[in-house]
Amino acid sequence: MNKVAILALAGLMLAHQAGAAEVIGAEAGLEYSDFSSGSDDLDKSSAFGSLEVGFTDQLSIQGDLTFSRLGFVGADSQSLGLHAIYNVAPSVSLGIFAGKDWIEGGNATFYGIEAGGALDRIRGETYLGAIDDGDESYTQFGIRGDFAAYDFLTVGGRFDYVDADISELSRLSVTTAFTNGNFEITGELGRAHAEGENETFFGVGARMNFGQRPGTTFEKRGLISILPGL
């Protein structure tokens, strides 16, 4: 049984034990990114949705689904992620995640641990895990922080890293979001490093947040989410 199935089974067991469940947050949106070189075959376009279901005040399950067009390989891809979340406090969450990326002709499983929290206008999260393509397993790590400068403007940054033994993939960027109610316009500018090459990239996106919170506890995970783009 793979890691995604194990996490899904754990969610079903949690639902059975906890009884009633309710949707506490959700989001859906579109994203686009490209490199500063302007090459048409290096862009990335994505549509995504996330849903979080709570079973108790402390326990919840989050699911992420992303469809992307990766210009650099000329292929469509899909990503499915699941998070089992324990809320230590109203503003502090711990989680385990697992999921799978599919790119035409191949796939990779990802899994790991994560933590997130908020203090006044500052919010952050971090994760540590692995990506397994069936032949090798690679370490993945990331950290992200956001500061709500105003009610309508959030600024922040993120760093993601994958150690693929013979090569490395990393990205470092600044992010921003303009909010109007539950609607957000997002932007990103950063540098990506892969196989000894560095290049600037940019990204833009739009998303709608729903639910009590609104939105979900954690960001998307997996290799496809780490590739330049929001």
Structure description:
- The protein has 2 helices and 12 strands.
- The protein has one domain (3-226): Inverse autotransporter, beta-domain (Porin, Beta Barrel), CATH 2.40.160.
- A 12-stranded antiparallel barrel has the order 1-2-3-4-5-6-7-8-9-10-11-12.
- By secondary structure, it is mainly beta.
- A hairpin with a 4-residue loop joins strand 2 and strand 3 (59-70).
| Mean pLDDT level | 87
Strand percent estimate:
over 45%
Instruction: Give the biggest beta sheet.
Output: 12 strands, antiparallel, barrel
Structural class: mainly beta
CA-based shape: globular
Secondary-structure element sequence?
HEEEEEEEEEEEEH
What CATH calls the topology is Porin
* DSSP, total strands: 12
Euclidean distance between termini CA atoms: 31 Å
| CA gyration radius, whole angstroms | 17 Å
Q: Helix share of residues? A: under 10%
Query: Which CATH-level-2 architecture?
Result: Beta Barrel
The CATH C-level class name: Mainly Beta
Number of helices: 2
Poorly predicted runs: none
Provide the spatial order of strands within the biggest beta sheet.
1-2-3-4-5-6-7-8-9-10-11-12
CATH superfamily caption: Inverse autotransporter, beta-domain
Number of domains: 1
Describe the structure concisely.
With 230 residues, the protein is mainly beta. The chain contains two helices and twelve strands; from the N terminus they run αββββββββββββα.
Show the helix and strand layout.
Elements: H1 3-18, E1 22-35, E2 44-54, E3 59-70, E4 75-89, E5 92-103, E6 106-119, E7 122-132, E8 137-148, E9 153-163, E10 168-180, E11 183-194, E12 197-210, H2 223-226
